[in-house]
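Q: What would this complex look like in 3D?
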Amino acid sequence: MATRRIYVGGVPIGGGAPVTVQSMTNTRTEDIEATCAQIAAMRQAGCDIVRTAVPNAQAARALKEIVRRCGCPVVADIHFDYKLALQAAEAGAAKIRINPGNIGSAEKVRMVADACRERGLPIRIGVNGGSLEKDLLSRYGLTAEAMYESAMRHVRLLEQAAFTDICISVKASDVRLCVAAYRLMAQKTDFPLHIGVTEAGTEYAGIIRSAAGIGALLCDGIGDTIRISLTADPVRECMAGNELLRALGLRKNGVRIVSCPTCGRTRIDLIDIAQAVEKRLAGIDRDVTVAVMGCAVNGPGEAREADFGMAGGNREGLLFRKGEIVGKVPMDRIVDALCAMVEEG
Amino acid sequence: MATRRIYVGGVPIGGGAPVTVQSMTNTRTEDIEATCAQIAAMRQAGCDIVRTAVPNAQAARALKEIVRRCGCPVVADIHFDYKLALQAAEAGAAKIRINPGNIGSAEKVRMVADACRERGLPIRIGVNGGSLEKDLLSRYGLTAEAMYESAMRHVRLLEQAAFTDICISVKASDVRLCVAAYRLMAQKTDFPLHIGVTEAGTEYAGIIRSAAGIGALLCDGIGDTIRISLTADPVRECMAGNELLRALGLRKNGVRIVSCPTCGRTRIDLIDIAQAVEKRLAGIDRDVTVAVMGCAVNGPGEAREADFGMAGGNREGLLFRKGEIVGKVPMDRIVDALCAMVEEG
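A: Here is my prediction, written as structure tokens for the whole assembly.
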């Protein structure tokens, strides 16, 4: 089902908008310099929307200056405290992440909803498999149904406050549970979905878990904005998020290298060649696919689909361009020749 | 649909057998020492089945000694040449990867089929989106249907030779196309499926593409054996393959660290702590989940699901064990205390 659209600052989420990449700062929000520097690095790495924890009033005050300086929508991440939500809305946050069920009373929910409605700010409800309500756990166990029901409780509280500008996440650290929960949300509702696998782990394991879970959802058209959570620098989260969107054809711009795994047929150092090509072409922001192939078996066929390509040989390699052979070059000049061809366009 | 089961050496594929990890050597197969050393490293990294290119008669001869020494099933990867397939079967390969449509004649297909049947060797048909038959491309375009039809042509050739001990792959470098092709295979046939994304690229991009595509399939129960193709050392392919199976709960053994992304609430250096814990516990081959959490918001909830866990604080952290708090420890001793608890079991 197509999702509704919300706007986070000027950035659309849902309703067919391009899938966006989010990440979260891990500086002390009160440290404005450090936070703005980190946000700049995150944006450079392709972050569309930044989230920042607002754990106290000092952070809420800092948020105002951060929003003014950073040049992209900032989401305020708030737990429990409705006053911080009001302060963050006042400070210029573009979205509030808060779970209304944890705020304390319907009156407080209404105050937060009113503050957001007045300023056109959406609210993200963020359900986490690790902190589900006890009654839901005992009724459903730790299942997709429990996560769906938890999200809908929060939704109803906002709807009772006449607030519908909502985005939802149902994250779990168990990849299959996470996928099942989002599928249920997508089947039963039309809320735009912020997707991610939570507590994904260190960069290596976390990228694999996140790519599997988020990738499975995106393959089926589920997910309007993504966050890859890593116990690592948030810049790495942004890089991985962008790479995942590119892998699924959901984000263009830049060079996509397809290269074969090397095998016993490979007579050239393809690992070095592919890395050299990837590095040299990293600055290109046209949408280009470049094939770096080791041998004649799959090389020419794959290079036919790529915009540019090479297939290596013993001494000489072939250069391709949109399916046509355009040259034969000694292997020690193949990287130069291929890259020059790509750079010329 | 449940797949049929085949056996590669003693290793079952399909019919509910555990999903296995494959990779391919990139040494010269003729170099027996180098190939055996690489296979040993791959097995150490969790490779269940090794594939080796057999591009010439010398490689086929080397295969005999490699099979004798390496201690795991070896698949011979052969293109076009039926004689090499016969030699590889003779040399002790546990499976032959060859596309019968490329062998040249029904008689040659029959000879290969007979040689494999006599020895109980399955054949993998490996369709690649980059080298589809021209008539299929012009009829279907580069689509899942074209890949399915291509696979079934090869299948029919083997079936005409009364050979049915078949496993199939339908790889593409386009992740969505790849997922669609495997889904079609799984829907229409019960052949065991070897799944992978081909020409996936350098290690970083390739892991993301492979985890997305293979992960999407495994989430739906599609895939009996996997290969992550990277333009990198095949040991890295094995590591990534195992990590992906662990991420989806399809392979146990070893420590799974769940750790939260750090955020502005985190007051401890969680990246260092998580990496230190991961490193120190890498040798443990019990199936254990360890949570390394930065703060009180999600920490205790998530640690409840893990076998062991810690939630960090300013000066002291909490230790959990199967949901129960078992201690409070100064933060400078938390890694030691957590790891000791895990090691004691």
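A: To summarize the key features: Residues 255-344 of chain A form a domain with the Sulfite Reductase Hemoprotein; domain 1 fold (CATH 3.30.413.10). The mean pLDDT of chain A is 92.
Q: Very helpful, thank you.
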